[in-house]
Design brief:
By secondary structure, this protein is α/β, with parallel strands linked by helices. About 35% of the residues lie in helices and about 15% in strands. Helix 6 links the parallel strand 6 and strand 7. The longest helix has 18 residues.
């Protein structure tokens, strides 16, 4: 029995017009992961147990469905056709840490097939699965992985009391010590303890505070990152709470004064300057907490940027 269930077929939107194809027309649902090769693959984690364990507002378990509902209505360029597979959502929950091991195995299979991966959360704890499989694959390729996290939080809490939405990068840094580079962008001081900042710096994490972006400008910061890391493959984690509350209210924690969506989109637009952008994870979108679907739209547009980056240059 598979640990994944395909999305509701009604999410695959169509205008029934061959002159106006939408993503719902071109995305193919796939039941067998081992048959998916050289595709852009969509996978979902409809789970917010980690958010609940960390004291946050729940609702992100509906994130994968909410994002797809918006994303699959967007226009599909000809170059997207026959290039996107949706393998569905993890649907066999037992114990959270054990569930994540199951998902890592599935991601390892997808990475071994030469696929690009779009992950839809769910709590940010699921980023550990995405990061772990990405790093493992790139180390096999003899390439040093680069992980970029756009977030208000460092998410380096110890997992000694169990997995939660604040533990993914602690777990990654402990599992892959000195084997990858981690850059945290948009970090907000009121969301992070001094101990967590000290831990990150002790692990050589590059921490870019939100105030630093305001003072230096995102263009200057990205130029500096590219100069140092441009030969590396990238996994990018987008915790939607990095975006200011007026543009992304539908999440576990939503703060005014965060990054603008345009700043996030600019960061995404710069990833073609690296060796490869192989994986995007989007987390903590909570449709039940959203206002007029604007958080889901932010997530869908970020996903669309990833798709465009990886598919537009491949031809129709």
């Amino acid at each position: 029995m598979s640990s994944f269930a395909l999305p509701n077929k009604n999410l695959f939107f169509s205008k029934n017009d061959p002159d106006d194809l939408r993503l719902g027309d071109v995305v193919v649902a796939q039941t067998k992961m081992d048959s998916v090769k050289n595709q852009l693959v969509v996978i979902g984690y409809p789970d917010d147990r980690g958010i609940q364990a960390n004291g946050g507002r729940v609702g992100a378990k509906e994130g994968p469905t909410g994002i797809r509902q918006i994303l699959y209505k967007l226009v599909a360029p000809a170059s997207f056709n026959n290039k996107i597979s949706d393998v569905g959502d993890f649907n066999a929950p037992t114990e959270l840490a054990q569930d994540q091991l199951v998902v890592i195995q599935a991601l390892d299979q997808l990475n071994a097939g030469g696929n690009k991966i779009l992950s839809l959360g769910g709590g940010h704890d699921w980023a550990f699965c995405d990061v772990s499989s990405f790093i493992t694959q790139e180390l096999k390729n003899n390439r040093r992985p680069l992980v970029i996290n756009i977030d208000a939080h460092l998410d380096v809490r110890s997992d000694k009391n169990g997995v939660n939405s604040g533990t993914p990068f602690f777990k990654a840094l402990e599992k892959f010590s000195k084997q990858f580079d981690l850059i945290q962008i948009g970090i907000q001081p009121h969301c992070n303890s001094k101990k967590h900042l000290e831990y990150s710096k002790g692990k050589s994490v590059q921490v870019i505070m939100k105030d630093e972006i305001d003072s230096k400008g995102i263009s200057t910061i990205m130029n500096g990152i590219v100069k140092t890391h441009q030969l590396q493959p990238v996994f990018l984690s987008l915790d939607i709470d990095a975006i200011t509350a007026c543009e992304a209210p539908g999440c576990s924690q939503s703060w005014p004064g965060g990054l603008s969506f345009n700043t996030v989109k600019y960061i995404l637009s710069q990833l073609d300057r690296f060796a490869a952008w192989n994986h995007l994870g989007i987390y903590e979108v909570a449709p039940s907490l959203d206002v007029q679907n604007i958080t889901q739209k932010c997530a869908a547009l970020a996903a669309y940027e990833f798709m465009s980056h990886n598919l537009e240059s491949q031809g129709g």
